[in-house]
Design brief:
Elements (H helix, E strand, L loop, with lengths): L8 H4 L13 E5 L4 E5 L1
Antiparallel strand pairs: 1-2
Length: about 40
């Protein structure tokens, strides 16, 4: 599966997280007391 389509739109429409690693794409899901980062 191509990296571009690895996650569904519900994940890729989340804000991008600022991860200072070259080549890493990440999306941030954040609640009041927790965070979840999807990375590829």
């Amino acid at each position: 599966m191509p990296v571009k389509n690895f996650f569904p739109d519900i994940i890729t429409n989340l804000p991008q997280a600022n991860i200072p690693v070259e080549g890493v794409n990440s999306h941030l899901f954040q609640g009041e007391n927790q965070q979840l980062i999807f990375m590829i």
